[in-house]
Amino acid sequence: MKKTGGFHWQLLRQGSLWLTFAVCCAILPSRAQEAAPAPSQVTITEPNPKLIFDTKYLTLDQPELREPDSLVENFHRYNTTEKQSVPYYNLGNFGTAYYPLMFYREHGIGFRHGFDAFDLFFTKAENVRYYQTLTPYSKLDFVFGGKEEIVGGAEFYINAKPNLNLGFDFHRNNFKGRNQHQQSIHNNFAVNQWFRSKNNRYDLKAAFQYNGIKNQENGGWADSEAFTNALYKRNKNFVPVYLDDALNKWNERAINFLQEIRFGSKSTLQIDDSTTRTVITPKFALQHDFHWQDWRFIYKDSEKDSAFYPRLLYDTDSTEDNTKVWRVRNGFYFKNMPQDSGKNNFLFSAGLQYDFIRYKQRFTNQFIQDVRVIGRIYNQPAKALFGYDVYGEAAVTPDYIGDFLVRFNGSLHFKKGMRVSVSAVVSLASPTQKEQFYFGNHYTYQNDFKKTFHATTGAAFLWDKQLMEVQVQHHLLQNFIYYDTASVPQQLSRPVHAIVAKFRKDFNTKHIYSGTELYAQWISDRDIIRLPVFAMKQTVYYKGGFISGKLKAQLGFDIIYNTNFNGNRYNPSLAEFYHQDKQQLTFYPIMDVFFSLHVKFTNIFLRMEHVNQGMFKQKGIYTAPDYGYLDRTFRAGLIWQFYD
I want to staple 375 with a disulfide (CB 3.0 to 4.6 A). Which of 8, 101, 291, 350 is the partner? Predict the structure, then answer.
């Protein structure tokens, strides 16, 4: 018996004997940037009692199909900032504003609002996952830490038809924290669909995203003895804070769809003895990218708080500052498509992107147009000794004329899993809206800043067999913008250099795993860029299999450490870190102990964070002036994947 056009299975039960007859023919939908493989016919002549899972996904920024993470290694590091490539600190409670310990600055041109202290917590259009799956795929996760934190979410994806996938992703994080008035609640929601026509002519990916963050702002501790006073030792909720009614709210709704019409040679596919289908082997494609966004940032405080802020400018009894962005984007691109010839293809894309933006803030109601010319040439590194990717964009509207960005990535692949890569990014960018002007109840300013120049060059060596990685980056910044001790943006006339190096080496034996990450950086002007010289992350655990090897366990610890530095203070009304000269941040190694279990598609972890608190003369750590690192905290979590 032969079936085609989808995934079909029957299960027949007779007495105590199960017989399974499964006949599969996978008509896999096309990749976003690759030609779809031709449908094939599969005939199963013997009983096959095992259901075979085939679940893969892609994103708009990484359009190659790949399998979901197994979640076996280091899945106890569940928090968003813990998953980044460099170490981060927050304000003592997960979900609050954060900053990286190593110098990092995004390259961007054209219109940018500049409120980015919570960007990592947002679900973005380019990160939405589009699945193709033979069976429904679900993932549930849940983490709790007593009364301080509850994190949970669910994902579900299903192919309603062989060429149509539907999915949703919802996560809610409630970070209460142990300090007064520092609760942070995140709600992230996305629904999406991926449709591919049967003849491979048309491809459509569409998604709706909602991001809502409600973050209580306490301004930090108002008592310098928070770690030494016996009254606060067991309960930091007794420590007085500067603000007890301030609140930041971030809200975003967005709709995005990317549609693609493909052109190429036609061929006839034999479906069965009496049915045929015409399919396209694409060589070129025309893309249309549409994006609608409604974004807003609100700072509210029903009290005057004249002791914390220097002044009240417009409203004398309370504060409510609003910044709103409404954006519509249309982009049109032409590109060629990878071929399945096995050769290293030369690929290109070129297009035009048009953004129409409305920006509102107290006395400001601007209508802005941002038009960019975009181009890219690249190949497929997996099929080449040398892989390259060159991307460029330039703004052509009067408001941003002269803005440009060029990015190059090259990689040389050797045998035994060794590769060397080089990269360079050069950009000339207009200041963000927040850097140019701001009208708030506590701060108001207008600037006439020059464009900022940023050049980043880097090199990396990776050796997969030895689990080793070495990276070095050099940053050159001209007209660098920072926030001074009065929380007002300033522009530096002299150039600033930063060199950041990373070394990673893992050891993975049958029962012992050790992972070491070392970071070091040199900054030419430490009065302007204030970050530590050295940082490290160390993970060690024992692993073993039980119950015929099906139940796997890990028992180990994490250690993080960085050198002392004069850290920046946080301003809640601006959602920005700024210079201060009163408090030096000092640190000691922080240890977390964890135990995890993994069986098939289920992962459970227990984790005691900051387990070594009180073992040093220094009784606690400040991650920013007046903001203390979390106390010893127990957390437990569960991640459960379903493939049926």
Answer: 350
Q: 433 in helix, strand or coil?
A: helix
24 - beta bridge partners?
7
Q: How many residues does the chain have?
A: 644
Whether 200 contacts 36, CB under 8 Å: yes
Spatial distance between the Cα atoms of 64 and 389, rounded to a whole number of angstroms: 15
- Three-state DSSP state, 398: helix
| 152 in a structural domain | yes
Sign of the Cα pseudo-torsion (466, 425, 58, 350, in order): negative
Answer yes or no: are the C-beta atoms of 539 and 558 closer than 8 Å: yes
Which pair of tokens denotes residue 240?
């007085």
Burial of 514 (0-12, 13-18, 19+ CB in 10 A): middle
| Closest to 597 (Cα-Cα) out of 548, 635, 550 | 550
Residue type, 151: V
Residue type, 518: L
Q: Quickly count helices (H) and strands (E) in the chain.
A: 2, 36
Give the closest residue to 432 by CA, choosing from 104, 114, 116, 108: 114
Handedness of CA 215, 218, 220, 223 (dihedral sign): negative
Q: Are 395 and 380 in contact (CB under 8 A)?
A: no
Alpha helices (runs of H) in 296-443, residue ranges in sequence order = 433-436
CB 368 within 8 A of CB 361: no
pLDDT at 41: 36
Closest among 20, 25, 18 to 2, alpha carbons compared: 25
Q: Encoding tokens for residue 643? A: 């493939």
C-alpha dihedral over 63, 332, 277, 160, to 10 degrees? Answer: 50
**Residue ranges for the chain with pLDDT beneath 70:** 1-53, 70-73, 146-148, 270, 341-344, 381-384, 547-549
Provide the pLDDT for residue 579.
Answer: 97
Question: C-alpha distances in angstroms, 393 versus 74, 104, 141, 390, 426?
Answer: 37, 21, 39, 11, 11
CA torsion 380-384-387-393 (nearest 10°) is: -40
Q: Is residue 632 in some structural domain? A: yes
Over the stretch 215-242, which tens digit does the pLDDT of each residue have? 999 999 999 999 999 888 878 889 999 9
Which domain does 15 fall in, by range?
6-642
pLDDT at 399: 92
CATH of the domain at 73: 2.40.170.20
First to last CA, the chain: 24
Closest CA to 508 of 520, 498, 516, 496: 516
Exposure string of 387-419, with b = 16+ CB inside 10 Å and e = fewer, is bebebbbbbebeebeebbbbbebbbebeeeeeb
Sign of CA dihedral 502, 503, 508, 512: negative
Residue 1 lies in a domain: no
Instruction: Count the helix, strand and coil residues of the chain and give each as a percent rounded to the nearest 5.
Output: 5, 55, 40
Q: What is the pLDDT of residue 50?
A: 45
Does 574 reside within a domain?
Answer: yes
Count: domains in the chain:
1
Output phi, psi for 593, to 5 deg.
-115, 140
